[in-house]
Specification:
By secondary structure, the chain is of the alpha/beta class. Helices cover 38% and strands 16% of the residues. The radius of gyration is 25 Å and the shape is globular. Residues 537-561 have low confidence and may be disordered.
Length: 580
C-alpha cells in the first residue's frame, strides 16, 4: 500500500470530521490538496470565481447544518481573499476550517514571490491560526484546528506550504476521535438561585432574544407565559423567536419596529437571552439587566450587568421554568402588546396606499410579495444594507425557514455567495438571494458558479441604482450624497447571456408573475426588479445621541412602508389583551 502524503492525510481528516466539500480557487501551492480531493470520492472540490465567495459559502453551509465546513485559498493573494468571508463566519459563530496554502517552506521570510504570513494575518478572525512547517505536525495540528472551530463555534485557519503538502506523511502518527459537536452548558446553582430571586421580585420583566435562542423557542414561550413577559428580539434572533409568539413586541436596534424599544426601556428587569446585541443606546439605563450567554466573553460587553449567567439559553430556561413564581399581573405585557400593534398599524397605511401602481416599484412591496410566494422551508440570504431592512420587516419566519446574512460583520456582497453554500447543502430546498445591486455587482462573477454547477438559486435583485444605505448615512450626517449612484446594466440580460433564467421587472403588475416563474424554474434564475431609491423617511422620535457612526445613523431610517404579516400577528395577539 502506497504511503500517504501530507495533502492526502489532510483531506482524510477533513472527511472524518464530516466535511463534504471544499470551496476555493485552485493555485500552485494548493495543487497537492486539490489533487488529493480529486482522488477521494468522499469529498468534493467546489470551484468558485473568487475566494471571498468560498469563505462566505462555507460560512453559510456551517450555519445551515451546524457542522464543520471548509474553504481554501492558494498562497499570498489567493488566501488573502478569504479574509472578509472568514471574518463574517467567525462573527456569526459558524464552524469553518480554512486552508491557507503557503509559499515553499524554504523561502518563508525571504520576500519570496506572493509571500504573506497567513498564520499571522488570520489571527484576528479565528480562534486558531497556525502554520504546518513539518510533516510531523500532522495530523495533530489539523485535529486541534478542527476542535477549535467546532468547540468554540468559529474559524480555524491552517497554513500549509505546498512543498510540505507534497511530502510523505509520517507513519504511526497520532490520530484520535474528533470532536464533532458541542455540549450543552448549564449555569451554576448560585447564578440560577440569584436569577430566580430577581425575577420573583420584579414587577415588569422583558425578554430580549438573539441567535442564542436557536432550538429554545418552546422554552422561551413557556417562560414568557409564566412571568408574563413581552418578548423582543434582535435581527439575528428573528428567525428563531418571532414565529408563533403571542408575546411578540418586535425588534429593537438599527432596523427595529414595534414596541421592542419601549418594552426593554420600561421594564424593571431586562433579561438578554443569547444575544450580543451591540447597540448600547437601545438598552435601558435604569433597569436591572441579566445576560445569559454560552460564551462567557460576551457577558457584560455592552452594558453593566446585575447578573451574568454562563450557560446556553435552553438549559438555563429549563432550570428556571419549574422554579420561578407564576406571575398573574399582565398589565405590563398587555400594555406592550397594544403599543406594538398600534405602532405597526401606524405604518401599514403608507405601505398599502397605491403600492400596486407606484413606479419605480416600492422595494417593500417586492419583499412582501416574495414572502408570500416563497416556500415554507425556504432559505433566504440577505445582502447588507437596505435588503437587511426588507428582510427584517417582511420575511415571515415559521420555524422552518432560515434567514442568513452578514448581520454581525456587515459586509457587502454576502447574499449570493451565502446562497451558493446553502444550496449545495440541499439542491431540492428553495434558496433565495435577496441582493442589492451594489452587493450583487461586487461579486457578480460568482453568478457563473450557479450556472457551472446548475445550482437552482433564485436571485431577487433590488435594483435602485444606488448604494442606498450609504446615501442615507450621508443624509443623516447632513452631507449631500456623493459617489453612491450606480450606472447599471440590465442584469437580467447578463443572466441570460450566462445561460441562466433572467427577467427584468419595471412595473408592479409584472412582479408576482415574474417571481412565480423564476421560483418555478428548475435552474438558476435572476429577477432584476427596478425599485424606488426614495422609499425611506426619518421618524421624529430618534434622539441626537443615537446618531453616531454607521450603526446608529441607520437607526434613524424607518420605512414609509409597513411590516408585512407582522401586523396580522400583532392583531391576533391583541385578542388576548383584556378590554376595560
Amino acid at each position: 500500500m502506497a504511503k500517504q502524503n501530507v495533502a492526502e492525510q489532510f483531506v482524510d481528516i477533513l472527511v472524518r470530521a464530516g466535511v463534504q466539500r471544499l470551496y476555493g480557487v485552485v493555485g500552485d501551492s494548493l495543487n497537492p490538496v486539490v489533487d488529493a480531493i480529486r482522488r477521494n470520492s468522499a469529498i468534493d472540490w467546489v470551484q468558485v470565481r473568487h475566494e471571498e465567495t468560498a469563505a462566505f459559502a462555507a460560512g453559510a453551509e456551517a450555519q445551515i447544518t451546524g457542522k464543520l465546513a471548509a474553504c481554501a485559498g492558494s498562497c499570498g493573494p489567493g488566501n488573502l481573499h478569504l479574509i472578509n468571508g472568514l471574518y463574517d463566519a467567525h462573527r456569526s459563530m459558524a464552524p469553518v476550517l480554512a486552508l491557507a496554502s503557503h509559499i515553499p517552506s524554504s523561502e518563508i521570510g525571504l520576500g519570496y514571490f506572493q509571500e504573506t504570513h497567513p498564520d499571522q494575518l488570520f489571527r484576528e478572525c479565528s480562534h486558531y491560526s497556525e502554520l504546518i512547517s513539518n510533516p510531523k505536525q500532522m495530523p495533530r495540528l489539523l485535529q486541534t484546528a478542527i476542535q477549535h472551530a467546532i468547540g468554540r463555534s468559529g474559524v480555524s485557519v491552517v497554513s500549509l506550504p505546498g512543498d510540505i503538502a507534497s511530502q510523505t506523511a509520517p507513519e504511526k502518527t497520532m490520530e484520535h476521535a474528533l470532536v464533532t459537536s458541542r455540549p450543552t452548558v448549564r449555569p451554576g446553582d448560585a447564578e440560577i438561585d440569584k436569577l430566580i430571586r430577581m425575577i420573583d421580585e420584579a414587577d415588569r420583566v422583558t425578554l430580549f432574544c438573539g441567535s442564542g435562542t436557536a432550538g429554545a423557542h418552546a422554552e422561551v414561550m413557556e417562560f414568557a407565559e409564566r412571568i408574563k413577559s413581552p418578548v423582543g428580539h434582535a435581527l439575528r434572533g428573528k428567525e428563531w423567536i418571532q414565529y408563533d409568539n403571542p408575546y411578540d413586541v418586535g425588534m429593537s436596534g438599527l432596523l427595529g419596529y414595534g414596541a421592542a424599544y419601549e418594552a426593554t426601556n420600561e421594564c424593571d428587569l431586562l433579561i438578554l437571552l443569547g444575544t450580543d446585541f451591540p447597540y448600547q443606546a437601545f438598552l435601558p439605563d435604569d433597569a436591572k439587566i441579566v445576560q445569559v450567554d454560552v460564551r462567557p466573553e460576551h457577558l457584560g460587553r455592552r452594558s453593566k450587568l446585575d447578573l451574568a449567567v454562563w450557560g446556553d439559553v435552553r438549559e438555563t430556561l429549563r432550570c428556571l421554568i419549574p422554579r420561578v413564581r407564576v406571575k398573574t399581573d399582565r398589565r405590563f405585557l398587555d400594555k406592550m402588546l397594544k403599543k406594538h400593534a398600534d405602532a405597526l398599524e401606524g405604518v401599514i397605511k403608507a405601505y398599502t396606499r397605491k403600492v400596486e401602481k407606484h413606479v419605480p416599484i416600492h422595494p417593500e412591496y417586492v419583499a412582501s410579495v416574495l414572502d408570500d410566494l416563497a416556500d415554507e422551508d425556504a432559505v433566504f440570504t440577505v445582502d447588507t444594507g437596505m435588503c437587511n431592512v426588507w428582510a427584517a420587516r417582511y420575511l415571515s419566519p415559521n420555524g422552518r425557514r432560515r434567514i442568513i446574512g452578514s448581520f454581525s460583520h456587515g459586509s457587502m456582497a454576502n447574499a449570493l455567495p451565502q446562497a451558493i453554500g446553502a444550496q449545495f447543502v440541499d439542491r431540492d430546498r428553495q434558496v433565495i438571494s435577496m441582493s442589492g445591486d451594489g452587493g450583487f455587482s461586487m461579486l457578480m462573477g460568482d453568478f457563473l458558479t450557479l450556472v457551472q454547477y446548475d445550482l437552482p438559486v433564485k436571485v431577487v435583485l433590488f435594483n435602485n441604482s444606488s448604494l442606498g444605505m450609504v446615501e442615507l448615512e450621508m443624509l443623516v450626517a447632513g452631507l449631500p450624497s456623493y459617489g453612491t449612484t450606480n450606472v447599471n446594466p440590465d442584469f437580467s440580460a447578463i443572466a441570460r447571456a450566462a445561460g441562466a433564467y433572467g427577467v427584468r421587472v419595471e412595473k408592479p403588475k409584472q412582479l408576482a408573475g415574474a417571481l412565480k416563474d423564476a421560483l418555478k424554474h428548475k435552474g438558476p434564475a435572476l429577477v432584476d426588479v427596478v425599485t424606488d431609491p426614495n422609499a425611506l423617511s426619518i421618524p421624529p422620535k430618534i434622539s441626537a445621541e443615537m446618531v453616531t457612526g454607521f450603526a446608529l445613523s441607520a437607526s434613524k431610517m424607518v420605512l414609509d412602508g409597513g411590516v408585512g404579516r407582522m401586523v396580522q400577528m400583532a392583531r391576533s395577539n391583541l385578542r388576548n389583551v383584556p378590554r376595560p
